Amino acid sequence: MTQTNSRVIRVHPNDNVAIVVEQGGLAEGTIIEGGITTTMAIPQGHKVALVKMAEGDQVVRYGEVIGTTLVAIASGSHVNETNVQLPTAPALDELPLATREITAVEPLEGYTFEGFRNPDGSVGTKNVLGITTSVQCVAGTVDYVVQRIKHELLPRFSNVDDVVGLNHSYGCGVAINAPAAIVPIRTLKNIALNPNFGNEIMIIALGCEKLQPSTLLSDRPVRIYENTQAADPEANVLSLQDDSFQGFGEMVEGILAMAERHLERLNRRQRETCPASELVVGMQCGGSDAFSGVTANPAVGFATDLIVRAGGSVMFSEVTEVRDAIHLLTPRAIDEQVGRALIEQMAWYDDYLSQGQADRSANPSPGNKKGGLSNVVEKALGSVIKSGNSPIVDVIGPGERLRRKGLTFAATPASDFICGTLQLAAGMNLQVFTTGRGTPYGLAMVPVLKVSSNSTLGKRWHDIIDLDAGRIATGDASIEEVGWELFLLILDVASGRQQAAADRLGIHNDLVLFNPAPVT
Amino acid sequence: MTQTNSRVIRVHPNDNVAIVVEQGGLAEGTIIEGGITTTMAIPQGHKVALVKMAEGDQVVRYGEVIGTTLVAIASGSHVNETNVQLPTAPALDELPLATREITAVEPLEGYTFEGFRNPDGSVGTKNVLGITTSVQCVAGTVDYVVQRIKHELLPRFSNVDDVVGLNHSYGCGVAINAPAAIVPIRTLKNIALNPNFGNEIMIIALGCEKLQPSTLLSDRPVRIYENTQAADPEANVLSLQDDSFQGFGEMVEGILAMAERHLERLNRRQRETCPASELVVGMQCGGSDAFSGVTANPAVGFATDLIVRAGGSVMFSEVTEVRDAIHLLTPRAIDEQVGRALIEQMAWYDDYLSQGQADRSANPSPGNKKGGLSNVVEKALGSVIKSGNSPIVDVIGPGERLRRKGLTFAATPASDFICGTLQLAAGMNLQVFTTGRGTPYGLAMVPVLKVSSNSTLGKRWHDIIDLDAGRIATGDASIEEVGWELFLLILDVASGRQQAAADRLGIHNDLVLFNPAPVT
């Protein structure tokens, strides 16, 4: 990164635009790099032209073309979505696959965290009773019972951190045999296996739903809890329509009794020292601005590389924010097969969007644009930096579980909550979330660390943001320094030594399933 | 209805199958109507053949063909989805439109309830502060604040029944310019206008989202509440990203202050005597069985006609459970235009399902089949009976508001929660929900009355079911008697004299939006 002076940032020597750093933006007539004078006021985070451009010229940021000018633009002028045309997306049929030479990196040794090791070998960062639901019909009942469990049972199980109802809007009233139904079904099945739930599976079902609990337990025995028999300590399914429950009161008592058995086992979990290679970190961004790609996301990318060097697992996601940078990613695939898998995920999503008469230009929000991001190309180039510099060792589809250590592309929509839900299903035990505009995002299942891309937000949302990467823009910290801070913070939070801001405040968002199939 | 004896029910004289009434079903060798002997055990709610049928014969129930036999079936045998073939759906291009003569019905006068009359003329059945959210990002914060409002503010406003956060999974990360995006957007806009919220509109926004609050308030002045200004009593939008909020604590204080102003106004609402013509009742069924079409739904249909005779409004919905009975509905349209509107909604859904490689056969659940419903035709014939015998005066699309009194077809998916959400948007002030298998459904926004189709469920779920229509099958009550009971119960619950079971127990389901457009 070439920091030209304290007022603007140019990321790459070939860039013909720079980003305004100064809080409050630049006034008309301000002199910046190379004696260029601004011809108009330009807000913070927005782009200023460093050269005179004719109509049709390429606008270059991150050393990549982010569009062509729709009109002539004077040096020192504001460059934004009104005068830059979105280029076509990179064609998917001629991309270089696995062409980048894989250079040996020094392993990072000696870093550990205190985690909960599970029977299946995975490691949790929290000790949570996750109550899976097979259908939306039971959500109101589960919400009611979770409150009762928290007040009546949880105080007796001091090693258990929380009880979470895994409610969702799937399970019935859906085309369960449509081809795309595989996505929500495997998502629910795999979320139940998230390492923070300690391999305890407890499902509340209705009875008549399309998504039968046996589907969610396809590789485990289904053991039904019935009210009339002595409670089976291994019971993993309770159906509200079971004949043995006479009314709501008995259902609730049944769920409480079943929860107690699971809490007893979870309470025996103890944190133990685990190598950093047991980290499974999901990287995400939401409410991005033009700083995201020069501060927070590069710092996250640096931390990604540290985790990979330590032998851990990192996912990056968000297909529509990767699509326009795909030509930078396919060369980083570890082999051609992984490269083709990347392309397949892009092609699936192109098709999905076009079926709904939408395309990738639907991605950026008004806030992204206010934050200086002119289009999805600029957003994508800034977004993929979260993936650092490591080779991409695997690609998984939405709702699938992670298969390999190292850096995986976990294909998900960019919607924060859907991406979070799918990364939970993939098995993350911690999430890092960067934001420029600010979102009070949180998940009850795993800690979420929020990193601000600019210090204006970092200071204003002092109690919501966990780490301020805006210090990189002001020159108060380097990308490497913030990357290391994040890595160490991840280890602290994964160990329970420190709480994520969202957990401290108690702000948690619900799961949102990705269901590309119709509802009925 | 021809009740042949206490063991089976035949609905229509032309039917060649009857439904087993007896709890526990019929054993092999049981003698029923006309000296027919069962050739095998047949479960309760399932169909028994009343005649010998050859392969390819028509199976008739409700006087309508529900399928053709796949094999020869002996008289006294079990008829179900394994030996009946689904017929093709009625073609949409040759349906009779508005052909049924409209007979004058005697107006029903003198029935009233105690409701909350609103400035816009609508009448509420509860007094609720509904907090609209423009985007899912604020849901965790709204959940947190709603708890604070309930504990800190609500006790001071004794006329206000509840505070509800209208959370959902829309607003950003979605293709907001896709043609189908109109559905979720108008749904959110119209839910805020539900009569139970007393025309008070309070929106919690983030700031950078695609669904801007101004869209939700397009016909009202948008007044942004800022923390630094004196609280505007008319303020109706608070954005968490507003510069004036220094951190989470100040956002929460801002929301509490805004809620207080709205609670002050809501607290001045008083119940007053209103004619039954102000009822706006949504009819729905979920977890249906073979009794639904002979007990609960006919009783609901009778109550529908009573409400219409009293000048009130009734909606029925659930396109996939109407599609196969559409030929019975288009003649009941009040004019050809309404008839064509019915057909348009069917055609839209046929297309929507086929885009997802699904069709109407995706509707029935395993529980429906266990309950004796062989296919979607039989389910639909039993479902549309909820609409009674009144003319259909209007058709609205998903998320639209009701325009006319009388009986309207409000097109929605059959998914219970999506249908409920869309009927809320249409403006219902009470919902009736029939069930045979049993679902503990509830909405916090309006009372939901649950009617059981069989007494086995009605007795077992004694505290969840509001009214047992199973007494119709056992001969202990007539359709007319249960219909009148339901009508009078609606008036009691709408008046706050009696609580719906779900409200008494505190079981409430979340909103689920219908979003046929892609996520990004």
TrEMBL record, chains A, B:
GO biological process: one example: galactarate catabolic process
Among the Pfam families in the record, one is GD_AH_second
Keywords, A to Z? Lyase
Which InterPro entries does the protein's record reference? GarD-like, GD_AH_C, GD_AH_second, SAF, SAF_UxaA/GarD, UxaA_altronate/galactarate_dh
Does tRNA-binding show up as a keyword for this record?
A: no
Q: Does the keyword ATP-binding apply?
A: no
Q: Name the SMART domains for this protein.
A: SAF (SM00858)
Q: Which domain of life is it from?
A: Bacteria
Q: Which residues form the SAF domain?
A: 15-85
Q: What is its EC number?
A: 4.2.1.42
A GO molecular function held by the record? galactarate dehydratase activity
Against PANTHER family, the record matches this protein to: ALTRONATE/GALACTARATE DEHYDRATASE (PTHR30536), GALACTARATE DEHYDRATASE (L-THREO-FORMING) (PTHR30536:SF1)
Family the UniProt entry places it in: Belongs to the UxaA family.
NCBIfam families, per database record? galactar-dH20
- This chain's protein is named Galactarate dehydratase
Source organism per entry reads: Vreelandella boliviensis LC1
